[in-house]
From TrEMBL:
Residues 15-51 form the LRRNT domain. InterPro entries: Leu-rich_rpt, Leu-rich_rpt_typical-subtyp, LRR_dom_sf, LRR_TM_domain-containing, LRRNT. This is Leucine-rich repeat-containing protein 3. SUPFAM superfamilies: L domain-like (SSF52058). It is found in: Membrane. The lineage of its organism: Eukaryota, Metazoa, Chordata, Craniata, Vertebrata. The keyword Ribonucleoprotein does not apply. The chain crosses the membrane at residues 188-209. It comes from the Eukaryota. SMART domains: LRR_TYP (SM00369), LRRNT (SM00013).
Length: 234
């Protein structure tokens, strides 16, 4: 019975997703799921996989803990998908051993910096419709980007129209700092809010004073209209 359980565990551990092909490279297990019309990351990937290819599919999202049980992973290829959203904990559990992560040629506009900055992997982020802002700038400064593809990280949209269509690295080399721009925008918004609040207070005080003056005038007219007040006046 124990021997049967052992065989069962081995077969489970070495199982291969039905839509993929499992093979070995220099003794390391590789799972090949390229061009299989996948819309999400398979759930039954073997735990001992080292190389995982999920490129050229229709995956739209990388959820939290998508690879957490794959502690031996060294390379993940997610290029040429339709990825739009990456959760903050998408690569939790694989940060230590991951060497290469390819996210190029997707539909990624922004990415939580927490999802990538914990990784030591070489990142490929080219050919995505990036929105150039502070978070992307921080990723570019702190993450390990593939030097061969960094020039292809282009501003599809940006805080200013003049940066659209330009490589992000070129924009930053020109001295642009998206983080300081965001801070200035926040400062301006705070100033406008404070000014509006101050203006409301001034308007309230003016209305309050005028209202009291009108009440005082009405009260004076009322006193003048009293019989005793009229006789005293005569």
């Amino acid at each position: 019975q124990a021997f049967f359980c052992l065989l069962l565990c081995i077969s489970w551990g070495s199982s291969c997703p039905p839509s993929c092909q499992c093979t070995e490279r220099a003794g390391a297990k590789a799972v090949l799921c390229s061009s299989r019309h996948l819309e999400e990351i398979p759930k039954d990937i073997p735990r001992d996989v080292v190389f995982l290819k999920l490129d050229a599919n229709s995956i739209t999202r990388i959820p939290s803990n998508a690879f957490r049980h794959l502690s031996h992973l060294e390379e993940i290829d997610l290029s040429r998908n339709a990825i739009e959203k990456i959760d903050r904990a998408a690569f939790k559990g694989v940060a230590a051993g991951l060497r290469t992560l390819d996210l190029s040629s997707n539909r990624i506009r922004s990415i939580p910096k927490e999802a990538l900055l914990a990784l030591n992997a070489k990142l490929r982020l080219a050919n995505n419709p990036w929105h150039c802002e502070c978070a992307l700038q921080e990723v570019l400064w702190e993450a390990r980007l593939d030097p061969d593809s960094v020039q292809d990280i282009t501003c599809h949209t940006a805080l200013r129209e003049e940066y659209v269509g330009k490589p992000l690295l070129q924009v930053l080399d020109a001295g642009v700092n998206f983080c300081s721009m965001r801070q200035r925008t926040m400062d301006v918004a705070m100033f406008i809010t404070m000014f509006a609040w101050f203006a409301m207070v001034i308007v309230y005080v003016i209305c309050y004073v005028r209202h009291n003056q009108e009440d005082a005038c009405k009260h004076g007219d009322y006193l003048k209209s009293l019989p005793g007040t009229q006789a005293h006046a005569e």
